[in-house]
Amino acid sequence: MQRSHNCGQLTTESIGQTVILNGWVQTRRDLGGVLFIDLRDRSGIVQIVFNPDYSGEALQIADKTRSEYVIAVKGQVVKRDPETVNSNLPTGEIEVRVTDIEVLNAAKTPPFFIEDGVEVDESLRLKYRYLDLRRPEMQKTLLLRSKAAKIFRDFLDEEGFIDVETPILTKSSPEGARDYLVPSRVHEGEFFALPQSPQIYKQLLMVGGVERYYQIARCFRDEDLRADRQPEFTQVDIETSFLSQDELLGMMERLMQRLFKETVGVELALPFQRLTHAEAMGKYGSDKPDLRFGLELIEMNDIVAGSGVKVFASVIEKGGEVKCLNAKGCGTWTRKEIDDLGPYAARYGAKGLAWIQVKEGEFRGPIVKFFSEEEIAAVKERTGAEEGDLLLFSADNKKVVADVLGALRLKIGRQLGLIDDSVYKFAWVTDFPLLGYDEEQKRYVAEHHPFTRPREEDVALFDTDPGAIRAQAYDIVLNGYEVGGGSMRIYKRDVQEKMFDALSLSKEEVQDKFGYLLDAFEYGTPPHGGIAFGFDRLVMLLAGRTNLRETIAFPKTASATDLLMDAPSPVKDAQLDELHIRVAIKEKAKK
Amino acid sequence: MQRSHNCGQLTTESIGQTVILNGWVQTRRDLGGVLFIDLRDRSGIVQIVFNPDYSGEALQIADKTRSEYVIAVKGQVVKRDPETVNSNLPTGEIEVRVTDIEVLNAAKTPPFFIEDGVEVDESLRLKYRYLDLRRPEMQKTLLLRSKAAKIFRDFLDEEGFIDVETPILTKSSPEGARDYLVPSRVHEGEFFALPQSPQIYKQLLMVGGVERYYQIARCFRDEDLRADRQPEFTQVDIETSFLSQDELLGMMERLMQRLFKETVGVELALPFQRLTHAEAMGKYGSDKPDLRFGLELIEMNDIVAGSGVKVFASVIEKGGEVKCLNAKGCGTWTRKEIDDLGPYAARYGAKGLAWIQVKEGEFRGPIVKFFSEEEIAAVKERTGAEEGDLLLFSADNKKVVADVLGALRLKIGRQLGLIDDSVYKFAWVTDFPLLGYDEEQKRYVAEHHPFTRPREEDVALFDTDPGAIRAQAYDIVLNGYEVGGGSMRIYKRDVQEKMFDALSLSKEEVQDKFGYLLDAFEYGTPPHGGIAFGFDRLVMLLAGRTNLRETIAFPKTASATDLLMDAPSPVKDAQLDELHIRVAIKEKAKK
């Protein structure tokens, strides 16, 4: 009884054919002695019928099957009676009259129904992942993920990229934080680390003359887990030599265009919008702005500096800023509705949230009285405030203002229905700052990593204003998510030395942390740069899901546990002996 | 100076074009003020010329470059003078007259030449792997590996296989030997393990209705390293539901056919030869026979049992066997040459090695006198012995005879030049024994793994002679290497229980070791089976190499060390504290 057809494949064109199907019993209904079974395989569902008129003994056997039994059947495809056509099913116009059946395997009653939209606890789904995966939406997502990987590979292969596997047993990174460690049996007291990314290897491949490299690479980060992180994740890792940033970004846009066309059938317009980091932060309060809607942040410093609103004046005096969000149409909100924004804004660091309603032709709200008529007119003009609008003000340092209004922008955009979920809005955010000042360590730190190339025209700023140097670094954002990022890398020794100086690293530290890489860079390193896409997240967005776990066959929970395998787990002392380690649990206080 | 062409791409068709090339200085020669540089990139080498007549300042700049400098040049492609054509180079008929040059980066003198066939210590090559990778033969191998992976993927994709990623942070296997462990930060005192293979996950995917799965998967095994093992290795992992063994094997043959055609241009004839395990062991003394030559082992028990050679008679009496290898043409060997085979055979367990020379029309050698004339005639007929042949006899238990004569067969085959290195001779070895008797544990153990399906007609033997059960397990062998293997899996509960009984496992042990998998098997498991190819080894054979390290971009040494990164390495105590472990080095005696 080897399968001749897949269940979901049968159409009216198959009518008259004798077929053999293999699959799972989805549901069964007995109507007056005639047994109808929905048979499911990976391709879909088809109705098969057991009737005393033609099924003979097969009917008795079929009658003993239950949900999730695995069966093989042989029968003839026939047209359904018009009144029994099921237009919800692609195979709904036909059914299969079964003459032979073989029960390949029995099944216990599963702990939840094998169908889309089951409402069961996620931990139950994860424990029985092998049943969860049978649900059509999970099958579809796995298929989509496989297809997306194939499209990446095909495109990159056509562009001359070589798929190179880099080690998973590698060296602990200089800081070592968040590294998963692996004790060595052969080398007592020494450890491998799992890579947080193949960054160093891909740069070494460029030194090695590979010129165009890619890998769909597993990466590992032992961090406190949030809803959208996994201890192991997959990135599409790409590095090229001899390409400019513009050439690389253009190529990646074509890659995204192909990916979206061939998976979700959407034609993306090229080129993607490009914003500098400064623009993105200024207009959207985010380095990964959702550009499916407007609601831009508006600079107000010049207008409100002289107003009687003390907090505005004092913030501006201290070098901070005041910005406004015009929540169109929210002027009709009740006082309570407006006040409820306060705690939300506070989560993002706001100490307060000033607002003005435009109601019955005039500005209303607690701060209005501190404005002159000229100032009110200027605010009106700058914000385009109209009847029924709500102006929200944040006054603080740049970061807080961006965080607060950026978050409010998203919340209100969603609330007002400004976001079209069917739209995929890509953009590049470029010119990230190269260095950030760490107040605690009293020194500059690399925003991306210490091999990120500064913009040519900013190199002189190393001597005068390192914080103002823009990096040749870029993120690719989609609908408010960062789906990838990368940079051009430093390849000239003098620039690298300036960078290390700016980071206040001593020669010894440099040698200790990056010695072998710097050695490598001395032997004829080509100009190079690259990018990495967060594959799990891209698949999540393509699948229209909101949780990374839905895109991974066997994910871990938010507490980094594999519920199916029950991992991690204790191991035998003999195993630890072999690895020259011992468990050492500290008192809770020590944590 | 963005590249317009690749170096290796330029031919006489490019003559007259102005091109921009980016690459590395391979060699430079100054001939009477004219500078010739061989410029190398990933695609190949081309000669570029700096001449005072047309190069201007570029000549002075070029004169300062040294080997491995990275340069960009612009110039015109011209035909070489007939007397300077280099027929060793694909680009040897043309050269590029350079008008502009930019030095992209300088280079120190590399520790070895960047060219094929360098004779330097492998550890130096591994330490400077990024330079080693620049050598054309390494580039070619990386490209071949990438291409081979692509062919696997394309084929499997076309056959409806889904690429599913399975976890790398997983659970320690029941025995735990050879597992790499990863301490958990979140779960104190608990450990993940790196997978030795995705075996369990791929079976769960079949339970999950994925039907056809593949993955080019990284696997890990912490074992004593031999020349041809790596702590992390890559396998092409495949599993299917609803396919018979014959269908799967046929599909895999077509996959190999495509792989070899599209990489090395060899057309493999299908179907591949199939031998049972018993045949392979009997005829070739190996379960991975090199079938590029004959020299089969010949059974002699019936002929020699009654001879006066005591050791033959006594071995046969104890249930052992006597076999013969006819080393054609080696009858002319000196006594010393023959005696030298003794120590070699001893390495494989031989206690002695009897022999007969056919010289001047008669049998000669120490044992000849113990044979009757009839016996000599029978030996002659059975072995086809002719003038100039050498008959080698091994008498011992089956295993030793196979090991000894299998090894001698290979040695003599090589020595006699019977092996054609240009031939790829594939075969399937099938019907491996399901169980082997472990004398130490006094019980049967699974030869493959406990989920391997027995042949249908052998299931009854569970009750009478478990050791005689043949498994639906198969290896694919190529030129004496095992390049893959797999099995059909048990999917019926009653068979699985018989298997566990045969392994003398208690209910508790079964639950403890395989509980979650057995649970999974209860919910409607389809018939399934699969195979895994050793990707590193396949690439090694395709590339004509003899060392797995040559096929891996960043391999580890035989002592599991990464010489480039210097891993494994000690880590900070703070890191270990976070992971709740401590180093515990025992006195050497304890090891």
TrEMBL record, chains A, B:
* GO MF entry, a single one: nucleic acid binding
Q: Which reaction does it catalyse?
A: tRNA(Asp) + L-aspartate + ATP = L-aspartyl-tRNA(Asp) + AMP + diphosphate
Q: Which organism is it from?
A: Paenibacillus apii
| Family of the protein in this entry | Belongs to the class-II aminoacyl-tRNA synthetase family. Type 1 subfamily.
GO CC annotation: what is one?
cytoplasm
Protein name, as recorded:
Aspartate--tRNA ligase
Family matches, as NCBIfam families: aspS_bact, PRK00476.1
Instruction: State the InterPro entries in the record.
Output: Aa-tRNA-synt_II (IPR004364), aa-tRNA-synth_II (IPR006195), aa-tRNA-synth_II/BPL/LPL (IPR045864), Asp-tRNA-ligase_1 (IPR004524), Asp-tRNA-ligase_1_N (IPR047089), Asp/Asn-tRNA-synth_IIb (IPR002312), AspRS_core (IPR047090), GAD-like_sf (IPR004115)
Q: What does this protein do?
A: Catalyzes the attachment of L-aspartate to tRNA(Asp) in a two-step reaction: L-aspartate is first activated by ATP to form Asp-AMP and then transferred to the acceptor end of tRNA(Asp).
Q: Which Pfam families match?
A: GAD, tRNA-synt_2, tRNA_anti-codon
Which SUPFAM superfamilies does the entry mention? Class II aaRS and biotin synthetases (SSF55681), GAD domain-like (SSF55261), Nucleic acid-binding proteins (SSF50249)
User: What enzyme category does the UniProt record give?
Assistant: ligase
A single Gene Ontology biological process assigned to it is: aspartyl-tRNA aminoacylation
PANTHER family per record: ASPARTATE--TRNA LIGASE, MITOCHONDRIAL (PTHR22594:SF5), ASPARTYL/LYSYL-TRNA SYNTHETASE (PTHR22594)
Where in or outside the cell it occurs: the entry states:
Cytoplasm
Enzyme nomenclature, EC number: 6.1.1.12
Quaternary state and partners of this protein? Homodimer.
Question: Residues that bind L-aspartate, according to the entry?
Answer: E175, R221, H448, R489
